[in-house]
Design a protein that fits this description.
Blueprint lengths: L1 H16 L5 E2 H7 L1 H4 L4 H17 L5 E4 L5 E4 L14 H11 L5 H16 L7 H7 L13 H10 L3 E5 L8 E13 L2 E8 L4 E6 L3 E7 L11 H12 L3 E10 L4 H6 L2 E6 L2 E9 L2 H6 L5 E5 L1 H16 L1
Antiparallel strand pairs: 1-3, 2-3, 4-5, 4-8, 5-6, 6-7, 9-11, 9-12, 10-11
């Protein structure tokens, strides 16, 4: 669906840019296959108006001209749609080059590399050697190992509902979830999807590593309003355990659990290969502690200890 629309927008843009005189709706409909396949005049008119508005939102300047016969025509003059010369200093060029190296996933890395090559062809200066010498040792990476990442990223971009099988941390088997995806967030090295769960009628956060099988797109529009970006990010942080409301005491095997140690409010050596940590306690901490297996023992509070034990038993049962 998204590919078909992109192709239609591209064809319309080429028609408007490639003519020396304004083209009427009738002429545009006869030149673009997707418009020819429109079932009725009303369907074509709605499609054309949406496409024209989308192109304008993307930055294409479309002039509306009326000819001597009173017929409205459309034209995208090249002089009004020409980008200015790219002027970047060495530090800006280095920053763009570093940004292009962030993504590890092959498909995204290829797109970033291609964009960088086009900028360099347009005159962007190369990064200076002194910058590379200082920063090449610390090269940022965004790891993306989950197969669900790319289809969900596209679904968030195109506002398309999706269906996937999801296994909760304390469940033995996955179950189907019908979701209107809002955004993807990376937190503690894991990717999360925030969106509207249609079956539960509420917003939910899903960890991508727990999505099994293929992500399937569904036709139709969203049924729930999409909140602003800040709200979604706060939701992801809350469900992942970022928002701490109290503290927990755990025993941690010496030399293990460095992510836990980095968040600890205090660390005390117990001896015999164990340390005692006080860490912030918020939603999702039980699921995180389970990942450390026998290297972690929850001391208090009792409800956190019970949640961790329940999750471990569910894992043991398979």
């Amino acid at each position: 669906m998204a590919i078909a629309k992109a192709e239609r927008l591209m064809n319309l843009a080429l028609c408007l840019l490639g003519t020396r005189r304004p083209l009427s709706k009738r002429e545009l409909r006869g030149s673009i296959e997707a418009y020819l396949e429109a079932g009725s005049d009303d369907s074509f008119n709605r499609m054309f108006e949406r496409d024209k508005d989308d192109l304008r939102e993307l930055g294409l300047v479309i002039a509306t001209v009326e000819n001597l016969d009173g017929e409205t025509g459309y034209l995208a003059r090249r002089d009004s749609n020409r980008l200015p010369a790219i002027t970047l200093d060495g530090e800006e060029a280095a920053a763009l080059g570093l940004a292009a190296k962030v993504w590890q996933q092959a498909r995204l890395a290829g797109a970033a590399s291609g964009a960088l090559q086009k900028l360099r062809a347009a005159g962007m200066p190369e990064a200076e050697d002194s910058y590379e010498a200082h920063h090449s040792a610390l090269e940022p990476r965004i790891p993306v190992h989950e197969a669900a990442f790319e289809p969900l990223m596209l679904a968030c971009r195109d506002r398309r509902p999706v269906v996937f099988d999801y296994r909760k941390a304390n469940a033995a088997r996955p179950e189907p979830r019908h979701v209107e995806p809002w955004t993807l967030e990376c937190w503690r090295g894991h990717w999360y999807l925030a969106g509207w769960d249609r079956d539960r009628g509420a917003e939910r956060v899903f960890r991508l590593s727990r999505i099994t099988g293929r992500v399937r797109s569904r036709a139709g529009s969203f049924t729930a309003p999409v909140p602003d970006v800040v709200t979604v990010r706060e939701t992801v942080e809350t469900w992942a355990g970022e928002t701490a409301t109290r503290s927990a005491r755990i025993r941690l095997r010496t030399g293990c659990g460095y992510p836990l140690r980095s968040r600890a409010q205090s660390i005390r050596e117990l001896g015999a290969g164990w340390d005692e940590l006080e860490i912030p306690y918020g939603h999702g901490l039980d699921a995180w502690l389970v990942e450390f297996g026998p290297d972690v023992v929850v001391l208090e509070p009792a409800d956190l200890r019970a949640d961790v034990v329940e999750r471990l038993r569910a894992v043991a049962k398979g």
